[in-house]
Amino acid sequence: MKRYKRVKCKDGFSVSIQASRSDYCSPRIDDAWEYAEVELGYPSQPDWLIMEYAEDKTQPRKTCYGYVPVETVYLLLTKHGGVVEGEVPKGVPVYSEQFPRQNK
């Protein structure tokens, strides 16, 4: 099972983005051709774009966000200046200079 490196954005925002058979994603399998929804976890700061997906809305920095559409993830990452390091699962569009995706 692949674990993706935490994503950091240009403005310092960071979040874990995961997708596998044990994560809240769609499809819920390992190494899908691409994912339509992914699991986010433990963002460095709260963000209204993903709040509706939070497991625990009272602790937005200490919770998981399940089944977040990849289009919403794109908006989130772009809002924070784009990706400067880390990895995203297949299917998650990213705005970055280096496009840090591993397709292994």
Write a structural description.
- This protein is mainly beta and about 100 residues long.
- It has one domain (about 5-85).
- The protein is built from one helix and five strands; from the N terminus they run ββββαβ.
- The protein has one helix spanning about 70-80, and strands spanning about 5-10, 15-20, 35-40, 65-70, 85.
- The chain has a five-stranded antiparallel sheet, with helices on one face.
- A hairpin with a 4-residue loop joins strand 1 (about 5-10) and strand 2.
- It starts with 6 loop residues before the first strand and ends in a 19-residue tail after the last strand.
Which secondary structure elements does this structure contain, and how are they paired or packed?
Blueprint: E1 7-9, E2 14-18, E3 37-41, E4 64-69, H1 70-79, E5 83-85
Antiparallel strand pairs: 1-2, 1-5, 2-3, 3-4
What's the alpha carbon Rg, rounded to whole Å?
A: 12 Å
Number of domains: 1
From the spread of the alpha carbons, the general shape counts as globular
Largest sheet: 5 strands, antiparallel
**Spatial order of the strands forming the largest sheet:** 4-3-2-1-5
The structural class is mainly beta
Q: Termini separation (Å)?
A: 11 Å
User: What's the count of strands?
Assistant: 5
Note the total helix count: 1
Quaternary? single chain
- Summarize the amount of helix as a percent range: under 10%
pLDDT averaged residue by residue: 91
Taken as a percent bin, the fraction of beta residues is 15-25%
Compressed to H and E, one letter per element, the order equals EEEEHE
